Amino acid sequence: MGVRFAGLCAVVVCGLAACGGGAGPRDALPASDAAAADDAPAADDAPAADGPAQSEAAPAADGPAPSDAPPAADAPTPADAAPAADAHAGDAALCTAGVLPGTCLDVSECYGTRHPTAGLCPGPAAIQCCTPRYAVDCDPNAVPEPNAGLVEEAGGGSCLPGMIPVGAFCIDRFEAALVEVHPDLSTTPWSPYFNPGATRVRAVSLRGAVPQGYINETAAAAACAEAGKRMCTDAEWLRACQGPSGTTFPYGSTRQPGVCNDARSVHPAVELYGTSASWIYSHIDSPCLNQLVGGLARTGAHAGCVTAEGAFDMMGNVHEWTADPAGTFRGGFYVDTVINGPGCLYATTAHDTSHWDYSTGFRCCADP
């Protein structure tokens, strides 16, 4: 599929930003290079740069700020040194733009979530310092479609496909993925590693899918509405996660390490950029973050992470937006389900509904 990037925003703090116009596939505006205010962000409070959308659509109103904290002090992390070079850039020269390590690349290969800076590299003017540099082999300009060919299962009871009944309402069995809706109403898979911006997308609940991250509550609500569903209220989300017995965790009252995808030892930004320097938390929009091994899991892959009524992954994997107009996402994600409350009681309220980053996802509810 062809790739188009929506115009990007320079984030000021906690999702407050102003956007410019749309940009083409080779000229998207750069992500902000502003470092976080503190040496390491507190839980869910550090600002980040904007990331790309994937289609020819108007930009989202605001971009991401981090929704998560860095790994615990005793967690193993890579050495705090820049990698030799981008894994996909061969023998390209290294460079530094401000505090950001980079690789000397042609500007045609440095767009989306990365930013070229002129005058720092040898060779023609088109060879510029592309920042930030990656420490792992991932092409941020690729657009994987891991959910192609997956279809929704029949709904339970009188619920829509992909949903199950919980008390008086229905909820998606799985964390949501997206499909793009075209003018003729046909659909194609949307890559779960890219923010949809204002692209017309529909939420789908699929077994074995990579769930959508990189999404704000506004876009999530629109995707649910496109599917004939709606965002879950906080009360509905808690009821579904805790089950009829009101347990703290989807599977019971006592935490069981490893049952859910909720405790990755190395923060993905530390692994991707090869350092724990504070600037990495201003660059958590990269599509590569959710493609690292041992990170985001496919829906239902953790078979024991299921509620009494059959909803999977309500703890860990991706944060899940609710209908709270002030902005709340619940359940934690694949690095942490502790800092903002245990299991089902985990709730992040530090950001408004325009916020997004690699860790923010959702699922939908509906009336039977």
Written overview of the protein:
This protein has about 375 residues and is mainly beta. The two termini are about 35 Å apart. A hairpin with a 2-residue loop joins strand 1 and strand 2 (about 15-20). Helices cover about 5% and strands about 20% of the residues. A four-stranded antiparallel sheet has the order 3-4-6-5, with no helix packed on it. It has a four-stranded antiparallel sheet with strand order 7-8-17-12. Strands 15-14-13-16 form a four-stranded mixed sheet, with no helix packed on it. The relative contact order is 0.19. It has helices spanning about 215-225, 235-240, 270-275; strands at about 10-15, 15-20, 95, 100-105, 115, 125-130, 165, 170, 175-180, 185-190, 200-205, 230, 320, 330, 345-350, 360, 365. The protein contains three helices and 17 strands.
Name the strands of the widest sheet in spatial order. 3-4-6-5
Shape: globular
Number of helices in the DSSP assignment = 3
Number of strands: 17
Low-confidence segments: 1-85
Q: Element order, helices and strands?
A: EEEEEEEEEEEHEHHEEEEE
Q: What structural class do the secondary elements suggest? A: mainly beta
Largest sheet: 4 strands, antiparallel
What gap, in angstroms, lies between the N and C termini? 36 Å
**Percent range for β-strand residues:** 15-25%
Query: Mean of residue pLDDT?
Result: 82
Rounded to the nearest angstrom, the radius of gyration is: 20 Å
